[in-house]
Amino acid sequence: MSTMFWNALKLSPALLGASLLFVSSTQAQGSVPSQAAALNNSQVAVTVEPIAEALTQLPQSTVALSNSDQVTTTTSQTVTTEETTSALTATETSSSLNPTNNLLAQQVPAANTTEVLEQINQYNNPGGESLDQVTNVSQLSDVSPGDWAYEALRSLVERYGCIAGYPDGTFRGNRATTRYEFAAGLNACLQQVERLIAASVEGFVTREDLETLQRLVQEFEVELATLGTRVDDLEGRVAFLEDHQFSTTTKLNGEVIFAISDLFGEEDNVLNADFDDNTVFQDRVRLNFDTSFTGKDRLRTRLQARNVATFEALSGNGLTREGRLGFEGDEGNDVQLDILGYRFPVGPAVVQIYANGAGLDDLATTVNPLDSSGSGSISRFGQRNPIYRIGGNGAGAGITFTPSGPFRVDLGYLSNEAPNPSDAQGGGGSGIFNGNYSAIAQVTFQPFKALRLAATYVHSYDETSLGHGTGSLASQINPDGDIGVVGNSYGVEASIAFSPQLVLSGWAGYTDAIVLGTGGADVWNYGATLAINDFGTEGSTLGFVVGMEPKLTGSSVAVGNLLPGDRRRDPDTGLHVEGFYKLKVSDNIAITPGVIWLTAPGHDEDNDDIFVGTIRTTFTF
């Protein structure tokens, strides 16, 4: 289409001349097409509905042509995504099935490729707002009315409705229009007139308008020729991207972690074992397929493979559950469905439905800026308050209310036995409501941008333990036999940004655990994190974590078997001390060396300190 059109454009003066001759001949013979309503002297009455057909059908999403040449097109539909979306590369995809509206800015060339792409990007709609039809060129306030061509084009635009402009009446630059921009508007009118002539629509074009067009074409001949070359180049690049796109509705993004890790420690007083482990090289791979059907919703399908085995000292059969790596998990690198969830807006609220793999941290904000297993803290404990981990991952739903003002309310419910239909008393699961579950209610208060405060409540039930997977073994509340443990957990979280480069966060958590028919226990934890952003280089982060992982602070006599010798509490207080430095190598690669120091592991000073070191390399795409 584009080749045929531009060949026609080069012959526009000849075409206009022929059109004038045709009109004169028609008038002289007193004949008009059967669709014409009337003749008025030397003019044919014009009754034309405005047509705004795009010169170039560009895709609807951001298309990265190179590092410096970026084209963005939008429609009236706004696409909302949770994560920061980078410009698409040649291997990425368009996010829409529909072509764009005709934008004057799409047709604007420049003296070189970089200028035209920057100009198109500048005049495009960065906020995704709808573009209304402008049929009066005086609405475009930055077009200077002082030149004869302004009045000529204004008349053509109003007569034939051939320019789509911006609702605010500007070219997004607050400056006088360039000759190239003016030529783009002229070109739109040329297309409209040529379509009317070719279609022999009722009324045809007046002789005066054809003469005006011919004069304008001669005046802007160079700009029109340049415009054709530039748009041809863009069409070729866009055609390549469309041919190689992944999907029109789905975007693929991924993360790969390589980690070299080791643990160093002496003997403990429980197992009398030396916990020096071998150095390991482990990995985790995640692929997210994010699909949007309305532009405001998101269906996420995540595939995951990993082989990050737990060090023996930090396992359930070891000394403690403290110090575990944040990206830990071992399925032998088998590919599994990790998360399957759909979220969509309902008025001022956002509803989330998960069929698999969701945690309470997916249903509520954790406030901590280091809450990322790939780019934040290297430990599980450093990511968030451990009460968000109670109940494990599963299926369920949540809703987030964000009314006007500084408050946010999160509610959610999850079950890790949701797909199991068997009777709980028969030794299996018991569906969504009668098996293991965890429910969360949280209110977040943000009086100003730099400060966030949250109050959290988690109610849970598990057939075997409390199940947060951090802290001392006793704090798991794992009594002998499948008795059933109910948890009522309370947390407070806070984060304050003294500057974009310095963010301090912290939390405290308490769980009142009830072993059904037996007794109760108390579990406490607290922690603080410090993030120093842009440390050394832009995008790099120096981070610190200090706190007490979950500790059994007291229990009734009946549950004394949680500890050797029927003790009712952890004897001492051990600290989790962590430091790491995320070095941003490029936009897609970060290397994070870090170390975790556990004092009095298992909250027992008779145990020698443990050190866990890792070098985490994260690739994102």
Give the arrangement of secondary structure elements.
Layout: H1 2-10, H2 12-29, E1 39-40, E2 43-44, E3 63-64, E4 70-71, H3 113-123, H4 148-160, H5 179-199, H6 207-219, H7 221-243, E5 250-265, E6 280-291, E7 298-308, E8 329-330, E9 336-346, E10 349-358, H8 360-363, E11 394-401, E12 407-415, H9 431-434, E13 437-448, E14 451-462, E15 485-499, E16 502-515, E17 519-533, E18 541-555, E19 576-586, E20 589-598, E21 610-620
Antiparallel strand pairs: 1-2, 3-4, 5-6, 5-21, 6-7, 7-8, 7-9, 9-10, 10-11, 11-12, 12-13, 13-14, 14-15, 15-16, 16-17, 17-18, 18-19, 19-20, 20-21
Coiled coil: 210-237
Keywords: Coiled coil, Signal
GO molecular function, one term: porin activity
Structure description:
This protein has 9 helices and 21 strands. With 621 residues, the protein is of the alpha+beta class. The protein has 2 domains: 242 residues, no CATH class; 371 residues, Porin. A 16-stranded antiparallel barrel has the order 5-6-7-9-10-11-12-13-14-15-16-17-18-19-20-21. A two-stranded antiparallel sheet has the order 1-2. A hairpin with a 7-residue loop joins strand 17 and strand 18. The longest helix has 23 residues. It is elongated. The chain starts with a helix and ends with a strand. The N terminus is likely disordered.
The shape, in one word, is elongated
CATH architecture assignment of the largest domain: Beta Barrel
Q: What's the gyration radius in Å?
A: 33 Å
CATH topology of the largest domain: Porin
User: Distance between the terminal alpha carbons, to the nearest Å?
Assistant: 35 Å
> Which regions have little confidence, pLDDT < 50, spanning 5+ residues?
1-143, 168-175
- Helix and strand run: HHEEEEHHHHHEEEEEEHEEHEEEEEEEEE
**Which strand order do you get reading across the main beta sheet?**
5-6-7-9-10-11-12-13-14-15-16-17-18-19-20-21
Give the CATH H-level superfamily of the largest domain: Porin
Mean pLDDT score: 76
- CATH class of the largest domain, named Mainly Beta
What is the share of helical residues?
10-25%
Strands, count: 21
> How many distinct domains?
2
Sketch the major β-sheet.
16 strands, antiparallel, barrel
Q: Please identify the structural class as seen in this structure.
A: alpha+beta
Number of helices: 9
Please state roughly what percent of the residues sit in beta strands, choosing from under 5%, 5-15%, 15-25%, 25-35%, 35-45% or over 45%: 25-35%
Protein name: Iron uptake porin
Signal peptide: 1-28
Pfam families: OprB, SLH
Keywords: Coiled coil, Signal
